[in-house]
């Protein structure tokens, strides 16, 4: 049985809103590196049952891929408290994926939100 959730434009927002920690694998069936990464991702999902592991098929869900500016696949994104805290293209080896998950777990989300707010304020100042 798969430990991952197929994310679509219909369930994406709800999944990210309802869960504190969501990993998202942007992939496609024709993509060799995506197929190589799939068992690594699935194993991580089984080893971290408290987290939500989602998959976005970029062929079936081009709107989601476009919304996040996905240029190459696979791309892994981590969303905590509805804030994207990690996004990187390329198939990660198992040890690197485990490390990224560990780092994302340790993030102080209050600090992340402050940094995001500061960046947004700076962008608004520069835009005027």
TrEMBL record:
Pfam families per record: Thioredoxin
Keyword terms, alphabetized: Disulfide bond, Electron transport, Redox-active center, Transport
Annotated protein name in UniProt: Thioredoxin
Keyword Electron transport recorded: yes
Organism: Streptomyces cupreus
Domain Thioredoxin: 3-106
GO cellular component terms listed in the entry, alphabetical order: cytosol
One function term, GO molecular function aspect: protein-disulfide reductase activity
Gene: trxA
InterPro entries reported for this sequence: Thioredoxin, Thioredoxin-like_sf, Thioredoxin_CS, Thioredoxin_domain
Family affiliation: Belongs to the thioredoxin family.
Keyword Zinc-finger part of the UniProt annotation: no
